[in-house]
Design brief:
The chain has 144 residues and is mainly β. It is 12% helix and 39% strand. The chain has a single domain (2-141), classed as Beta Barrel (M1 Pyruvate Kinase, Domain 3). It has a seven-stranded mixed beta barrel with strand order 1-6-5-9-8-7-11. It has a three-stranded antiparallel beta sheet with strand order 4-3-10, with no helix packed on it. The protein is globular, with a radius of gyration of 14 Å. The termini are close together.
């Protein structure tokens, strides 16, 4: 287990809107109370790096955290990690499943954002071990 970063912010989507929270609970179907819960377990958690927001800002696109649709915003860039890589946050263990696909809603923020963040939007993960994740929790890369 290697410490690689920390959780900066947490978000989930109730039936309407998005909420920034200091913690949330997860099980193998996703984030409890999230509108996407139990829809697609392999895409149940979206992690994004603070570097994505820095990249957008560097190109003149300022956004509030959470605008990229992430559930977990971290101070580590995980985009180079391959599917199957496991991460531990608090007592929760996540497994990376795939890079985040681009969605057209990013164009609503700025027309150049989808292309700019093509490889830097985020990664999806599924929950292997249920638990609670809190803002400020350490992020560990688990050895395979």
């Amino acid at each position: 287990m290697v410490l690689v970063g920390t959780v900066s912010s947490l978000f989930y989507s109730p039936p309407i809107g998005r909420i920034c929270v200091t913690s949330f609970d997860l099980d193998t179907q996703g984030i409890l109370k999230d509108k996407h819960y139990n829809q697609n377990p392999s895409r149940s958690v979206l992690m994004t790096s603070l570097e994505s927001y820095a990249l957008a800002k560097h190109h003149g696109i300022a956004m509030d955290k959470g605008f990229l649709g992430e559930n977990i915003l971290i101070d580590y860039n995980p985009y180079h990690l391959s599917s199957g890589t496991r991460l531990q946050i608090g007592e929760t263990i996540l497994e990376i499943t795939q890079p985040c696909t681009l969605c057209k809603s990013l164009s609503d923020i700025d027309v150049s954002l989808p292309l700019l963040l093509k490889d830097d939007r985020g990664i999806f993960a599924k929950v292997l071990v249920a638990g609670c994740i809190k803002e400020g929790d350490s992020l560990y890369l688990l050895e395979t």
